[in-house]
């Protein structure tokens, strides 16, 4: 019987991801996804021994509750429910209220809901998932791990905007940053890879997925990051615009767009999808580009150019740079994206090792630049492991 199993839950507005993590081995012994909540096709699926299984949710409503009930039943069927010692929850936004992992009670859940103005698509859903899990696992300690917490070490010059202090003090308008658990994990793994203590190492972590962000990490701490007040700013992403002149929003409103229409356009219809006119999926963009599609080529060029610009600018935040880290779905698997970014950074001495870059995909890690040149590397992220470890650490504190 194991005493190191943590159930990790990431509850979204219409989905719920889960994973069972062994905090000793770091392995995920079970993982799955509930999706399409609120729709007739709502279901929960999971993989056991590489075989996918699926359970359809009924139309009686409360699909979050139904999904967790099915997860509980699954754990009981597998005979491992009694081995779980804690539940860890991913929370996108902790504002300035939550600067580290906390044990969950109703007061904490209410505070997370109170921060919903900062993350309207995420925090309300997290609160739903927490309450459902607390009901399903009433005897287990449950913990909230915040994407924003890792970035609380940023200096004021990095997180305070060039706006009146009134807006910051009254409304909390500032840079918060996201993907904190990912940047934390890969920076620690990178330090091991180059055989240096993390508190003596500096990296630029490049998390490239459907959501994307860059983080400057000095001696193990975040000192700047590209996402800001919300996850919309910074890099161009799958469907998000990234950095944009704020006057464009005023312009669109004057043209008759509603605030809701502007929000949806910039969050859901922009980025790779908007520029290419085809897809938000990087693989589709590259395939179309190779077939001569102009929109896909432009999307590829804008994306790689903007990532390269951010990397170059974040060198200013560091005294030294031990390596650039590529991670997340695109960062871990797209050789053409990484190759183009390194080409854009050749002024800094980066030279791609094509064979190493081709090998560092599909779960493989490695240094992808030539010997005796500045280091760039690929490290698969593991946010669930960080959430599980943070939860276990607080459980035994």
TrEMBL record:
Substrate binds at residue 90. PROSITE patterns: ACETATE_KINASE_1, ACETATE_KINASE_2. Gene3D superfamilies: 3.30.420.40. One of its GO terms (molecular function) is ATP binding. It comes from Photobacterium lipolyticum. Catalyzes the formation of acetyl phosphate from acetate and ATP. Can also catalyze the reverse reaction. GO terms for cellular component: cytosol. The active site is at 147 (proton donor/acceptor). It is found in: Cytoplasm. Its EC number is 2.7.2.1. Coiled coil: none annotated. Keywords: ATP-binding, Cytoplasm, Kinase, Magnesium, Metal-binding, Nucleotide-binding, Transferase. Belongs to the acetokinase family. InterPro entries: Ac/propionate_kinase, Aliphatic_acid_kin_short-chain, Aliphatic_acid_kinase_CS, ATPase_NBD. Mg(2+). Can also accept Mn(2+). One of its GO terms (biological process) is acetyl-CoA biosynthetic process. Mg(2+) binds at residues 10, 383. It comes from the Bacteria. Pathway: Metabolic intermediate biosynthesis; acetyl-CoA biosynthesis; acetyl-CoA from acetate: step 1/2. Transmembrane segments: none annotated. Its cofactor is Mg(2+); Mn(2+). This is Acetate kinase. It catalyses: acetate + ATP = acetyl phosphate + ADP. CDD domains: ASKHA_NBD_AcK_PK (cd24010). ATP binds at residues 17, 207-211, 281-283, 329-333.
């Amino acid at each position: 019987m194991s005493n190191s199993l943590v159930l990790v839950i990431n509850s979204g507005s219409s989905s719920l991801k889960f994973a069972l993590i062994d905090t000793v081995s770091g392995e995920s012994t079970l993982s799955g996804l509930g999706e399409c909540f609120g729709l007739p096709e709502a279901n929960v699926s999971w993989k056991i021994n590489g075989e996918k299984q699926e359970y359809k949710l009924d139309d009686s409503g409360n699909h979050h509750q139904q999904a967790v009930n099915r997860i509980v039943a699954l754990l009981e069927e597998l005979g491992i429910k009694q081995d779980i010692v804690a539940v860890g929850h991913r929370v996108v936004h902790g504002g300035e209220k939550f600067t580290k992992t906390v044990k969950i009670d109703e007061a904490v859940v209410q505070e997370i809901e109170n921060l919903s103005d900062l993350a309207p698509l995420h925090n309300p859903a997290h609160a739903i998932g927490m309450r459902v899990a607390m009901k399903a696992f009433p005897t287990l300690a449950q913990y909230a791990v915040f994407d924003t917490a890792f970035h609380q070490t940023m200096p004021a010059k990095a997180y305070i905007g060039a706006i009146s202090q009134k807006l910051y003090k009254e409304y909390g308008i500032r840079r918060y940053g996201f993907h904190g658990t990912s940047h934390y994990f890969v920076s620690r793994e990178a330090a091991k890879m180059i055989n240096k203590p993390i508190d003596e190492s500096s990296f630029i972590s490049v998390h490239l997925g459907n959501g994307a962000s860059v983080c400057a990490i000095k001696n193990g701490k975040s000192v700047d990051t590209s996402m800001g007040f919300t996850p919309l700013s910074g890099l161009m992403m799958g469907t998000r615009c990234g950095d944009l002149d704020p006057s464009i929003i005023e312009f669109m409103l004057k043209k008759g767009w509603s605030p809701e229409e502007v929000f949806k356009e910039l969050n859901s219809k922009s980025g790779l999808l908007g520029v290419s006119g085809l897809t938000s999926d990087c693989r589709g963009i590259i395939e179309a580009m190779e077939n001569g599609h102009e929109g896909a080529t432009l999307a590829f060029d804008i994306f790689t150019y903007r990532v390269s610009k951010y990397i170059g600018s974040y060198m200013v935040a560091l005294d030294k740079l031990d390596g650039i880290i590529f991670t997340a779905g695109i960062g871990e698997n797209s050789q053409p994206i990484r190759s183009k970014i390194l080409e854009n950074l050749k002024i800094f001495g980066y030279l791609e090792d094509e064979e190493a870059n081709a090998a560092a995909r599909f779960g493989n890690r490695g240094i992808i630049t030539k010997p005796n040149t500045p280091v760039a590397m690929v490290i698969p992220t593991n946010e669930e492991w960080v959430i599980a470890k943070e939860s276990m650490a607080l459980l035994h504190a």
